[in-house]
Known about the structure:
Blueprint: E1 3-8, H1 22-39, H2 44-47, E2 53-54, E3 57-64, E4 73-84, E5 87-96, E6 102-112, E7 114-115, H3 126-133
Antiparallel strand pairs: 1-4, 2-7, 3-6, 4-5, 5-6
Amino acid sequence: MAFSYTRTVHFPDTDAAGVVFFARYLSICHEAYEESLAAAGIPLATFFADHGLVIPIAKSEATYLRPLLCGDKLRVEVTPTRLSENSFALDYVIWKTGSADKRAAVARTEHVCISSKTRERLSPPPALATWIDAK
């Protein structure tokens, strides 16, 4: 199920040329990921704590379609997709909003659920599995 997150580009997001620094796109996507989890009722304070299971990003990629500047208004759409019993992907579309919304970037992160002690793959906790599989 797609989730939408809105934000404004802030000065610390930009580089010396005045455009959003390439790595900040993934940070903005991660903000949207966190907001999506919170909106689904998953408490972030415990989600990101180590309770024997951690969910690192195993892969990330982004395509930058147009520059974003300080003050630009954004909408980030997040869509989770299950990849396997213990992994999932998050697909993001970053829109520059205004008189005509325009795609500014697309990104994807792939996550794997693992034991924090053994690094063996584990199934996601029930609340996360429900969030991933929601249509």
